[in-house]
Prior knowledge:
16 helices; 444 residues; flavoprotein (chains A, B); monooxygenase (chains A, B); homodimer; Luciferase-like_dom (chains A, B); 8-stranded parallel barrel; alpha/beta; LLM class flavin-dependent oxidoreductase (chains A, B); 39% helix; TIM Barrel
Amino acid sequence: MTTAPRQLRLAAFFTPPGSHYAGWRMPDARSADMEIDDYVAMAQLAERGKLDMLFFQDSAAVASAAVNRTDDPEVQTGAARVVRIEPLTLLASLAMVTKHLGLVATATTTYNEPYHIARRFASVDAISRGRAGWNLVTSQFEDEAFNFGADHHMEHGLRYERAAEFFEVVAGLWRSWDPDAILRDKDSGRYFDPAGMHVLRHEGRFFKVRGPLNVAASPQGRPIVAQAGTSGPGRDLAARIADLTFTAQTEIPAARAHREEMRERARGHGRSPDAIKVMPGLNFIVAETESEARAQHEHLMSMMVDRIVLPTLARLTGGVDLTQYPLDGPLPPLPQSNSAHGRQDMLVAMAREKNLSIRQLARHFATANGHQVFVGTPKAMAEMMETWLMERAADGFMLLQPWFPTPLENFVKLVVPELQKRGVFRREYEGTTLRENLGLPMPE
Amino acid sequence: MTTAPRQLRLAAFFTPPGSHYAGWRMPDARSADMEIDDYVAMAQLAERGKLDMLFFQDSAAVASAAVNRTDDPEVQTGAARVVRIEPLTLLASLAMVTKHLGLVATATTTYNEPYHIARRFASVDAISRGRAGWNLVTSQFEDEAFNFGADHHMEHGLRYERAAEFFEVVAGLWRSWDPDAILRDKDSGRYFDPAGMHVLRHEGRFFKVRGPLNVAASPQGRPIVAQAGTSGPGRDLAARIADLTFTAQTEIPAARAHREEMRERARGHGRSPDAIKVMPGLNFIVAETESEARAQHEHLMSMMVDRIVLPTLARLTGGVDLTQYPLDGPLPPLPQSNSAHGRQDMLVAMAREKNLSIRQLARHFATANGHQVFVGTPKAMAEMMETWLMERAADGFMLLQPWFPTPLENFVKLVVPELQKRGVFRREYEGTTLRENLGLPMPE
């Protein structure tokens, strides 16, 4: 048996209206928050590029900075990301205008019920004939709590305990029906075979769910599960349950160590290390020439207003108000936040290792939320991606679109052919389901 | 000013795999539970017929009869309706393959969070450019409780209190953004106008929700709201909040009195009586000739097995096991059920007024769940519908499809032209939103 060359897994990631806080102000930027035609164009573009999937971030809230800072209209109105089409609903629409593309949406385990989530992803999976994926998160930030009856965000450790049980229920509900259980036998009048129905009867700390799910078996066994937690509990959950993990890594040695750790953890949970794909985020601006890419990047950075980007750090400081400190001075010591632990650790490490000021950190996080930033030519980008793949620092990348559509257009037009030429990316989709295209095994 | 002739409002209603318990066994019946192509065909057929909307029933559970009666495989496997695509997810798909058709899905207020529901319907409304509708229900039956942490169904009165507050929150969230509040002004960097953002800050008995909703204003003011409650609290809620009410009426005098009562109740809540459309359910089999229609009906009835249809009554008896009584004898006295009050009252009234046996009642409810049943020619059906309209017994009908596709196909091909000829149904859609097509006013 010959080993196929290693192949990149690629996701077009999108946070409406773009990953870069000022991206929406680029001259060519489309609104891509409420306009279905923009999302259709994005999905069809990603599919033309043979990408594995389109992947939507989500939050079930408008950020408190936008809601509360009415004393500072510039802060308030500069914060984009206030409206969007709910991404799981959106997937069902995009399934109708694509044939091969995987469709992944974020949904929180903290402010949802597992029966609803199992049902909705299973439904998108049926509509798309096996192309759905769930990015399982624990609600990083407190904003969502206020929309679901709580005064405070659930404690970090408890969120992960809930997430683990939430997943157990969802996965159990997805096993409700054997693939051949729905008979619809007109002659005998038998609609289903009771032997193929599995009633969950789950009773745990957080949930009590009888089941079965009222959706038939998934065309791909079950929807793909992604997880992006970078804290200890986050990594452990990902290693145990995730088909792919969305991680933030900026250097090859650390990324390689992280990937090996995740594979080792998966092994520890009795899984094949190849059953988990490690995909770092990659914020990118790519253009035909280096100077053109640089110009776009400079233009973006020139539109960053410190007073607007500073709030992007506020949710990672554990309550410390950074505006009380000199902007060009160092990050003060921070207490452990109840928000995203992993992201806070990254902020602190970055400040220390690279000796960055508060202003520099704020601008970095507003650009890429801690992820790697690439600015350059298609050849350089393909080279870099291939190197990460060959160095075993990544199984692929989450392509963070700073705005839509030019970055993704350029990637599909210029970088994809370069990757194909190098033999590290597909020329045609291999299968009909997302699981098949990712080369992942069926769940037992 | 001349008064336009009265026009019928028509919805194609669907409970997968059909309203009649044996409908799925008809030779031409398609599965229409998990197959997206069947739903696409249904939506496009309804739109060809210029129908106002497609309207999906829902339940977030497999019925307990199917789950628990493993001792009786015939009862268990004869109960269809075990799997389906979740209807609100489905609407987002159907929005992509239709242009004018209204898209309405049922979602319960008993086992949901208002922020999620407001967001999802607003998202379908954005995707469809103003064609979404919500059928607000209170979970008639206990089955759903078991999937959401409860051992028993919430008490009837409490369900309606919760529903009223749930709606208040959803409606408030739908007012979060003025239509012109999202500026996306690239030059100034202002993404939104704080003056056009309305933060709900709701605190009530059941819910605490800060808001605002993270979805922009609806193209039709807000999604259309339907309500089907027939108990006292149900009627009052509908009269207060619903754009249309789905009712069960089988005779013109009672239907006229009911419609007048609903209009009067609406007036009592300070609304125009024309702002609520009263639409009785209509189970129908229509064919070119009377004998053909009769033959289809006879074939359907021949496939009814008493042991299978009896459980359809079980949820309306308040715990009394009807199998203990002679099937051809009368209905025994029943205690008040915690399920659908209105439906139980209808059952009892029907038994008394028409002197029906338990077997006859079971067969009637398994056919049409208490709704009017029409079997006949296109001309007779159009005549009947026109009479109900002119007699002010209805503003239109919920067309209950006993199976798919022949009944709806025949309706569109044979009955719609007949109604158009009589001047009581549109030849072209009047507007672009569901609200416009229904001739309903914008909400304040």
